Amino acid sequence: MLEAFGLICNGVKEEFMRRGVLPANSIVALLVLTLFVPLTAANSSSITTDTVWSGNVVLDEDIIIAAGSTLTIEPGTVVDGGEGFTIEVAGSLQAESVHFLSTATPATQSSHGQGLWQGIIVNPTGSVSLDNVVIDNSNIGVKSEGDLLIDRVTIGNSYLGIYNIGVADVTGLTTDSIDYEAILNRGTLSLHSSTINNASTGVMSSGTVSIEDCNFTQLGSAISLTSGATVVSGVDMQNVSVALTSFSGVSADVSNVTGSNITLFADMGDSDNFVLSSVNISGGLLATSKSVVKTELYNISFEVTHTNPNPVLRQSCVGLCLVDNVTITNAGKGILFDGDGQFHVRNSTIVATGYGIRSTNEGVL
Question: Angle formed by the axes of helices 2-19 and 24-36, to 10°?
């Protein structure tokens, strides 16, 4: 009965608002409804004028914010995306101190996103600003082809955290329990002062990305670069299988990194230009590469804490591979160079029980 009463009252409210008046008895009815029904439904699928949400909002269908319109969600608001609904932004969305979630039951215990709400989708014309926001139980926390501004946002229990195709400025992001990528970037991304935890991949990027003062923990792969330009500075990594992965076409400048319990720090693949400097870490292997064009390793301290039969640093180079002021301790095998490129070693200390440096093939050491 309360549900039917709510529909009647909403209809009365809309009718009188169209006429520009709202009688006293309708106001009383709406107040009573607010007291006895804890959640109100967002019934409109399209927002075409500036709109404000507050209190508790339940989506019963997709919400589209039209171009030129702004949806403002006030502090303290709880938005329930239900089972499979989304907020699509062609205009503007501004949310501060808001909790987005889904109360739907997951299909399986191991499923974070299936059957739950779809998240916030930003169209190329859209812009979204999220401040002190929590996003839970989504397929994708935020997918953006437009402009995305994030400050102090937590995303958890989702398939994907952020999928950026546009321009994203992200500060103070915390992610936890993400099935796949915490951040998937194919646009331009600036990531600052953030903590990426418990995901298959922390950041996967084929675009332009800058990462500064961030923590990466409990990850299969912390930062995976498939193309584009990347600058990483001031990061700490703990309990990571592969910290950095890079491929042909990638330009990467990574500096000021600390960490421990890292199985492989850098898989440089066949990178065109990979610079690694000011690193103090421990784990199994420092770096490996395959037919790289150029790599530069400066001011690195690596302590081997995982027993393994492989060389700690293996460089297969067709161009120039530089090792300068690198210290490797507690190794079984130190550095192995192979390929037809040039290998320069300067001011370095290799402590190993097997060999310190070995060079094969037709390269110049």
Answer: 140
Give SS3 for 361. Answer: coil
Extract the tokens encoding 280. 């103090």
CB proximity list for 31: less than 8 A, separation 6 or greater: none
pTM over 0.90: no
- The two three-digit tokens of residue 199, written as one number: 């995901």
For residue 352, which of 330, 336, 337, 335 has the smallest C-alpha distance? Answer: 330
What phi-psi label fits residue 339: left (phi over 0), alpha (psi between -120 and 50 degrees) or beta?
Answer: left
Distance between CA atoms of residues 2 and 16, nearest Å: 21
What does the pLDDT profile of the chain (365 residues) look like in tens digits?
333 334 333 443 343 333 334 433 333 333 333 333 333 344 448 999 999 999 999 999 999 999 999 999 999 999 999 888 999 999 999 999 999 999 887 766 655 555 589 999 999 999 999 999 999 999 999 999 999 999 999 999 999 999 999 999 999 999 999 999 999 999 999 999 999 999 999 999 999 999 999 999 999 999 999 998 999 999 999 999 999 999 888 889 999 999 999 999 999 988 888 999 999 999 999 999 988 888 999 999 999 998 889 999 999 989 999 999 999 999 999 999 998 899 999 999 999 999 999 998 888 99
For the chain, how long is the longest CA-to-CA vector? 91
Gyration radius from the chain CA atoms: 26
